Predict the structure.
Amino acid sequence: MQRDPEAWDNPLEFQPERFMRDAGKVEYKGNNYNFLPFGSGRRICPGISLAEKMILYVVSTLLHSFEWNIPHGTTLDLSEKFGLVPKMQEPLIAVPIAKYSSSGHYL
Ligand code: HEM
């Protein structure tokens, strides 16, 4: 359903901005069957509230604290392989470089 071209324009294209166009209106708590990131019904993810509170904090802290690279001499390959959930064809190797010392000073 989340890949149905009748519900989504170019559903297989990575377009995170599609969610920003109607930010605030995107329903993800199991009532909009076009978009079920946490599932639906009796087995819906019980961690939604925690995820809502933590995800922005965790992702922004990782982006703020580290510069992210891929190993030298490699290229980024975002192709997927078929499965129950999409997995990367080639595993992503991300190399974090700390921006701050343990005392909090910019390196
Ligand atoms: C962005 C974060 C998360 C996403 C996208 C996510 C997504 C999902 C999905 C799709 C399911 C299956 C629902 C279904 O079968 O209909 C699930 C189940 C579950 N999730 Fe999450 N989840 C997230 C975070 C969390 C967190 C933070 C916790 C706990 C602290 C959690 C605990 C669980 C548990 C225990 C289940 C099994 C529920 C059951 O089978 O009855 N999840 N989650």
User: Anything to note?
Assistant: Residues 1-46 form one domain. DSSP finds two helices and four strands in the chain. Residues 37-40, 43-47, 50-51, 55 surround protoporphyrin IX containing FE (CB under 6 Å). Helices lie at 18-21, 48-65.
